[in-house]
Amino acid sequence: MKRGKAKAPAKPYSVAGHFTTALSAKQNYIFIASADELYINSSLRELSKLSRNNDIILLGMEFITSMESIPLDYFENLQLEFATSYWVDQNTARVRDFNTGFTEKYRIRPSGFAYRGYDLTLYFGSMLFTYGPGLGFDQDVYNPVRFKMLYPYYFETSGADGRTDYLENKHVTILQYRNFRFVKVG
Asked: Rounded to two decimals, what is the model's pTM?
């Protein structure tokens, strides 16, 4: 059996220097437009070190919060902010009641899909009940349950030639990672 040379291990990403030359004495907003977990992790590690002496706010995409290799300290040090079209504040009485009822019934904590499913069913179910099957999708139509939802949707119709091709939720929330949890800032 012929043995070839072993490949050298891949070099870790190096972002040192990329950020230091761009930082100012004032607030620094940094947006990382990548889905590469190794690059993001390396960048956040470097930025986290730099945040000791610089005011850095990381503007990110929501998916980076689910990357398992990124320590939560990085999000805290960099005051991570991102926009999301759906967020359930676990500190509200309505959500706590939902969690309790769901857990009692199914013996498991609700997932993000359970929250969305509840809200969508409540929203469209109430619209069908109030306006019938020809409810239409006027954005000005009153929705009687919006205040009961865990996170209110604000749908607008989109389509050509006066027809509705789809509904789009126009409600966006800005979240920031503070004290090791997400809080609404906008």
From this structure: 0.74
